[in-house]
Amino acid sequence: MELEIQAQADPDFVRRFLDYTVRIHLREGLPVLPVVLLVVPEAEGVRPPYLVHCRGRQVLAFDFLVVRLWEVDFSQPALQAATGLVPLSVLDARAGPERATWAEERLRQAKDLSSQERLDLLIVLGTLTSRRFGSERLSQSLRNIMIDSPFWEELRALERSRVCAQTLVTFARTRELTVSPEEEQRLAAMDESELARLITLAFTSPDAALRAVREAIGLPTSRH
């Protein structure tokens, strides 16, 4: 099984996934079951199968399984019994903020975890809870853990970049430039300081900012 986890949309993912799968097949000489695990709905991208055509003929069809965590029913006893999966239960679309409270208590009471394993799982829980329900839903004890975690700053940086990218997309639309979801993802992947510079440029020199946005998302500067 080739398992890949996606937490955000990536237009190039399926081609890399195909590459990984073929490499494993050639290396091991065995059939490979490719599975992509989508953490959040925003990670939804190209759906299977991935088709390649040449001269009007289909020459390749790459199929893979998709597991969407928000569609998994974590109330199933078998899943609740698996301590390592408890943090993922906050992603269940049927779960409310109270699921985070239950999950934290479950992890703190688990006797099958070492101190480090418990800390790691609490950090995962805090990261996913913040993403699903907002950081204000964290308990004070979980918040204290997250503040000391490098994942916390990484999560905040990703959120700041996402907001900056949305701001630039709004700016582009006012200048009659349509930005696709894939192109918005390219913006969000840019350095935070560069995004801030582009936003400032949008106020001080809109034409230059528009050219910079086009260049950043890989468009010809003459596109209208």
Give a structural overview.
This protein is 52% helix and 11% strand. The chain is mostly helical. It has a three-stranded parallel beta sheet with strand order 1-2-5, covered by helices on one side. α3 packs antiparallel against α4, α4 crosses α5 (140-147) and α6 packs across α7.
Low-pLDDT stretches: none
Structural class from helices and strands? Answer: mainly alpha
Percent helix, as a range, is: 40-55%
Number of helices: 9
Order of helical and strand elements: EHEEEEHHHHHHHH
* Overall radius of gyration: 21 Å
Number of E-type strands: 5
- Strand proportion, as a percent range, falls in 5-15%
Largest sheet: 3 strands, parallel
* Biggest sheet, spatial arrangement of strands: 1-2-5
Question: Separation of termini?
Answer: 45 Å
In summary, what is this structure?
The protein has 224 residues and is mainly alpha-helical. The protein has helices at 13-28, 77-80, 98-109, 115-133, 140-147, 150-174, 181-188, 192-204, 206-216, and strands spanning 2-6, 34-38, 50-54, 57-62, 65-68.
